[in-house]
Amino acid sequence: MIPEPQLTYVLELLAALGPAADDFVVAGAQAMRFTVPEARATKDVDFVLNVLGLRAQPQSLAETLAKLGYTPVPESRNFQFVKPIPDSRETMRIEFMAPEEFKRNNDIRVDIQKGVHARACTGGSIAVEQSDLHTISGRLPDGTPYTGQIRVTHPHALVMLKLLALADRYQNIRGPKEARHDREEAQTHASDIIAILRVVTDIPSFNTSLVAQFHNEAALGISVLRILADYFRDSSSPSLILYAEHVASNLPANPSTTETINAEIDNALQVVLRFRPKPDFLSLAAAIDDSTHGVPLVDEYLANLEQSRIPFSNPLALTLLPAGSFGGAYARSTTFVTNAAELIARLEEPQRQLAFAYLQSKIAPLQANAELRSKYPRTLTS
Predict the structure, then answer these.
(1) For residue 217, what are the contacts with CB-CB under 8 A and spacing of at least 6?
(2) Are residues 18 and 46 in the same domain?
(3) Residue-number span of the structural domain to which 243 is assigned
(4) Between 328 and 208, whose confidence is greater?
(5) pLDDT of 218 above 90
(6) pTM of this prediction?
(7) What per-residue confidence (pLDDT) applies to 41?
(8) Which of 316, 304, 320, 302 is nearest to 369 (CA)?
(9) Has residue 356 been placed in a domain?
(10) What pLDDT score was predicted for residue 284?
(11) Do 261 and 183 lie in a common domain?
C-alpha cells in the first residue's frame, strides 16, 4: 500500500478530484505496492491519465492542483507537480503520463486541460484500460479520516510499461550525457519486472492477460513480447546483467558477494522463464514479418492467398504463410516447421489471436502498392 506521508496527500488529491479521480490511474513503483509486498520505496506518484475523460470534465485540474498547493516543476512544462509537506523537508511529487496517440506533433507532451499536460506514454491506453479500483484509507492533512477508491494498473500492464521503459533506458537514446542515469534506471526497471513476476501465483492466467491486453495494439504487443524474450533469454542477457548490477549495488564488498549474486541471478532467471513467450509464437511473428515485407516471400504469400481465394480478414490467412518464412527462426534445439498450420495449432488461443491481429496490421502497406494490387487483385482489394 502507498506509504505515509504520500498516502495522506494521495487521499487529499482523490477527495479534491471527486469523480475525475477515476480518470487517474496509478502506475510505476506505487502501483507495485498493491501487488508486491516488499516493493521498493519511492516518494513520487505516477499517474496515467484518461485523456478523453478528463477533457470532458468541467472541473479545472490546474485550479484544483493550485488550491492543494501544487506548483509545476519548471523543467517539466506542466506534467510534473510538486508541493511541500508541512513540518518536513519532504515534498509530494506527482507526474502525469497519457497515451502517446494524443501527443502533440514533434513533442512529448499531451494536452489534458489548460495548464495541465502529460508526458506521452507508449502503451498508455492499455494501462488505463487494464486497471481496476482499490480502496485506500487514512487521514487527510487536517486529520479527518477518509476512505477513497484509486484506480491502479494491473500487474501485467505494469510489466508491459516496465519492459518498454527498460529497453528505452538500456538503449540510451538520450546520448552519452544521460548514459549513467539511463543505466541506473534500466537496472531499476529490470529489478521491478522480476519483483512483479516473482509474486505471480496464477502463471497461466497472467500469461494469458499479458498477451490478450494487446488485442487492439498488436504491433506493440509483438514488440513488448520480443523485449521480454530478448532481454531475459539467459543469465548473460541484458536484463539479467542489469539485475546483477542492481543486486551488487546493495551488497557489501566481501568474498561471498559473487556467490550471492550468482544465486540470485539463477533464481531470477527461473522466475522469468515461466513468462517468456514460446519460440513457436516468436517464430510465427517473424514469419509474418518476412511474408509481408520484401521479396520473394511477399509474392509467394500473396500468390498463395490469391490462388486459395482466402482474404486477409480470414484467420486461415495465417496458415498460408510460406514455408520459407520459417527457415531462420529456429534455434538448434527446436523443431523445424514447414507447415504454418502445424505451428499455429501448438499455440494458445490468445497467441493465435494476437498473431492474426499482427498480420492485419501489415496489410495497409501492401494494399498501397499499385504493382501488388495489380498482380493480386482479389487478395489486396477485398
Answers:
(1) 123, 125, 126
(2) yes
(3) 158-273
(4) 208
(5) yes
(6) 0.94
(7) 81
(8) 302
(9) yes
(10) 94
(11) yes
